[in-house]
Amino acid sequence: MSSSYAEAGVDTHAGDRAVELMKSAVQRTHGPEVLGGVGGFAGLFDASALRDFRRPLLATSTDGVGTKIAIAQAVDRHDTIGQDLVGMVVDDIVVVGARPLFMTDYIACGHVVPERIAAIVGGIARACAETGTALVGGETAEHPGLMAPDDYDVAGAAVGAVEADALLGADRVQHGDVVLALESSGLHSNGYSLVRKIVSDRGASYTDAVPELTGYATLGDALLEPTRLYTGPLVRVLASPSGAGIHALSHVTGGGIAANLARVLPRGSWAELDRSTWSPAPVFRVLSDWAGTPLTDAEPTWNLGIGFFAVVDPAQASAVTSALEAEGIRSWAVGEVSTAPLPNGDFEQGAKGVDGGAVRLTGAYPA
């Protein structure tokens, strides 16, 4: 009696086919800095450009997409998840003012379906190209017996670089700085365990049409709206004259609105964010209505329409807003930073192990 790898559930030929299908998309992210092409044991990136830096700091980030993947699997649509991955990984790097250099990805699945893997990686490659990031390598692994045949998960890691004296962060933030909110494209890639529970409890299907979700044919389409990519616009704004007024950035991901801003404010400072300055998109309102809870209950979980924060010099706030608008990103003043004594009330103090500032939301969302 003999056994083979194929009999164990691993199809190496399917893996090779997937690589062939994705190769051209990956190669389109390569500039002259990438050496060796696709398929090597290690991706190679020529770092000689860093010699032009006075004191280069490398920035790195790693993340996944989370349970949003379950919705992609349910509706059998896999071409947007890659952008979600890049948004979760690369947009964390620009928070410190870094320009992304390269990224790698990892896909684990129960069974390799070449066209599905190519769709996922195609989305990653398109988003990498949009953010100026070289996709220099990746891995696809079959895990039969551990994952169901149609299950998969994705993760990625990226590296960027920033001049030490251009590093953004809490040490630059000052009393009176304006907090700008940058509009999100929707739910992005956080809070989907809650989303899926709400949809399940409602007895709804991802293929249902929901009249309130204008512009989307189905609920699934609205929930799979890709994460907005902020890196390209922010890198360009930071390099512009108005960019000098940006003191700190924050990516609104897991933990919600207040906690993520608090992470980039200095200890002893605080900010109040005025809910009346924006109206959460219909997808947030529909889900909150279905859950029978107010929008305020979702603030620690969903971005509710704010995907990023920029903390800026008040003299530059208008210029930064205009520069972002020119890049296709709507932004608005949502609050300001204070170092006066902390008022009474419930504030979110720091987050994710960072002993930062304090933030709370005030007022009411427009009806």
TrEMBL record:
Query: GO CC: one term?
Result: cytosol
Keywords, alphabetical: ATP-binding, Cytoplasm, Ligase, Nucleotide-binding, Purine biosynthesis
Q: Cite the annotated pathway.
A: Purine metabolism; IMP biosynthesis via de novo pathway; 5-amino-1-(5-phospho-D-ribosyl)imidazole from N(2)-formyl-N(1)-(5-phospho-D-ribosyl)glycinamide: step 2/2
Matching entries from InterPro entries are given as: PurM-like_C_dom, PurM-like_C_sf, PurM-like_N, PurM-like_N_sf, PurM_cligase
- UniProt-annotated location(s): Cytoplasm
Pfam families membership: AIRS, AIRS_C
The reactions it catalyses are: 2-formamido-N(1)-(5-O-phospho-beta-D-ribosyl)acetamidine + ATP = 5-amino-1-(5-phospho-beta-D-ribosyl)imidazole + ADP + phosphate + H(+)
Q: Which GO terms describe its biological process?
A: 'de novo' IMP biosynthetic process; adenine biosynthetic process
Entries under SUPFAM superfamilies matching the protein = PurM C-terminal domain-like, PurM N-terminal domain-like
Q: Which domain of life is it from?
A: Bacteria
Give GO MF terms, alphabetically. ATP binding; phosphoribosylamine-glycine ligase activity; phosphoribosylformylglycinamidine cyclo-ligase activity
Is the ATP-binding keyword given for this protein?
yes
Residues of the signal peptide: none
Q: What is its EC number?
A: 6.3.3.1
Which enzyme class, named as a word? ligase
For whether the record's keyword set contains Mitochondrion, the answer is no
Q: Record's CDD domains?
A: PurM (cd02196)
What the record says about family reads: Belongs to the AIR synthase family.
HAMAP family, per the entry: AIRS (MF_00741)
Kindly provide the name given to this protein in its UniProt entry: Phosphoribosylformylglycinamidine cyclo-ligase
User: What gene is it encoded by?
Assistant: purM
